């Protein structure tokens, strides 16, 4: 595996020179200055590529060239947006960048209710509390039909929470669920929005009447449209699993389990239609056997995110250390080092906030010291495998 790092461009306080010092080989980034839906020009791509290469690194993965909502729900400007996407892919191919990570999640990307959940040792990590999320969609969003998605016991906890919820608590949930994560991930919401809750509800309304089959068909349609340019330039498209891997907000989510992955791989059986294997996202669902999924889909895995979660039957989950949790990262490292295609890009995904990370202008989940610690853990696992120390795979 190639050791890569998600870097947020020239304004990222974590410099490329810092990344060279900690053993990073490849960069995962995007043209963050380009408005979503606009064409990525060859000149802009080459400018960033050359900047990265002057630092002694390479631009290994685009994460991401966003798939616009209208492509997902099949809006009237879908064809125009797909054509712009194809032009951007053409320019990436000309520049020699051959791996593009994207997602097909409607409206909302990864979801957490707490971005700084404390651990006893003084570190913190991302956390999803199902009761708090239910409170958000029932009492803050006021989503029609939301109460029907929860059991009587869950609703009782939500209603009890409402009796003591403060304005500060409510605002923090809006910040955590809508603004701080979605703003830098897909640009649907920004900190400058005066009424992010209303904007969020308007985005949800775009998917009225869109079910899982419709979303699947729209994904298949889009993939079939872009595969010719991927074939021309050898570009691997790799979809990120839904995070968390279960239904939320009444929206269809279609990359949640092995059956979902089989569907889209078989629907467009082109080698360039592949998967970003995010062990953390998949492990947040108790229905997923993460190592088994790695073994099943290895031939179509073009990019790997290594992290892990601790999940409980009540629907809660928390980001675990890369040496713990239910993703079995050590087992995955051994498997991928021995079975993945050569130099498949891998990045350690998310990390605890630690050692003063809060002062470094980080994006949620993307602390410097926390990810450096995780990279060191994974690098050690890789070294053990490469030196001949293996674990048995059942």
Give a verbal description of the structure:
Strand 7, helix 10 and strand 8 (273-278) form a beta-alpha-beta unit. The protein contains 14 helices and twelve strands. 43% of the residues lie in helices and 14% in strands. It has an eight-stranded parallel beta barrel, surrounded by four helices. The protein has helices at 16-21, 42-54, 69-73, 78-94, 130-140, 152-164, 167-185, 196-205, 212-233, 258-267, 279-283, 290-297, 329-339, 368-386; strands at residues 2-6, 26-29, 58-63, 99-102, 114-118, 124-128, 236-239, 273-278, 301-306, 308-311, 317-320, 345-348.
Topology order in helix (H) and strand (E) letters: EHEHEHHEEEHHHHHEHEHHEEEHEH
Strand line-up in the sheet with most strands: 1-2-3-4-7-8-9-12
Write down the overall geometry: globular
Compute the separation of the termini in Å.
22 Å
Structure class: alpha/beta
What integer value in Å does the Rg equal? 20 Å
Instruction: Give the helix tally.
Output: 14
Give a quick precis of the structure:
This protein has 394 residues and is α/β, with parallel strands linked by helices.
């Amino acid at each position: 595996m190639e050791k890569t790092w998600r870097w947020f461009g020239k304004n990222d306080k974590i410099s490329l020179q810092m990344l060279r010092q900690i053993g990073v080989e490849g960069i995962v980034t995007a043209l963050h200055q380009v408005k979503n839906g606009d064409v990525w020009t060859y000149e802009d791509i080459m400018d960033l590529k050359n900047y990265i290469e002057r630092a002694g690194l390479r631009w290994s993965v685009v994460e991401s060239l966003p798939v616009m909502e209208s492509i997902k729900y099949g809006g009237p400007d879908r064809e125009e947006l797909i054509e712009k996407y194809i032009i951007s892919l053409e320019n990436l191919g000309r520049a020699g960048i051959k791996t593009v990570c994207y997602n097909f999640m409607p409206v909302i990307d990864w979801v957490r209710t707490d971005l700084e959940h404390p651990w006893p040792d003084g570190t913190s990590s991302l956390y999803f509390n199902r009761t708090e999320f239910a409170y958000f969609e029932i009492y803050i969003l006021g989503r029609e039909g939301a109460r029907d998605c929860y059991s009587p016991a869950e609703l009782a906890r939500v209603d009890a929470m409402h009796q003591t919820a403060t304005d500060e608590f409510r605002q923090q949930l809006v910040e955590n669920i809508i603004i701080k994560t979605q703003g830098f991930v897909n640009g649907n919401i920004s900190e400058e929005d005066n009424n992010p809750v209303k904007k969020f509800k308007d985005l949800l309304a775009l998917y009225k009447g869109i079910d899982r089959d419709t979303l699947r068909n729209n994904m298949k349609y889009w993939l079939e449209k872009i595969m010719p340019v991927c074939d021309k330039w050898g570009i691997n498209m790799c979809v990120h699993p839904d995070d968390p891997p279960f239904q939320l907000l009444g929206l269809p989510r279609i990359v949640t389990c092995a059956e979902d992955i089989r569907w889209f791989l078989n629907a467009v059986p082109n080698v360039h239609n592949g998967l970003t294997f995010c062990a953390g996202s998949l492990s947040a669902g108790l229905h997923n056997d993460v190592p088994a999924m790695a073994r099943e889909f290895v031939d179509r895995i073009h990019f790997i995110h290594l992290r892990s979660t601790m999940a409980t039957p009540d629907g809660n989950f928390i980001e675990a250390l890369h040496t713990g949790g239910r993703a079995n990262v050590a087992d995955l490292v051994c498997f991928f080092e021995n079975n993945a295609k050569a130099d498949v890009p891998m990045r350690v995904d998310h990390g605890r906030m630690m050692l003063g990370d809060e002062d470094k202008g980080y994006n949620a989940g993307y602390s410097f010291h926390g990810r450096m610690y995780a990279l060191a853990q994974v690098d050690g696992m890789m070294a053990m495998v490469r030196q001949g120390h293996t674990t048995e795979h059942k």
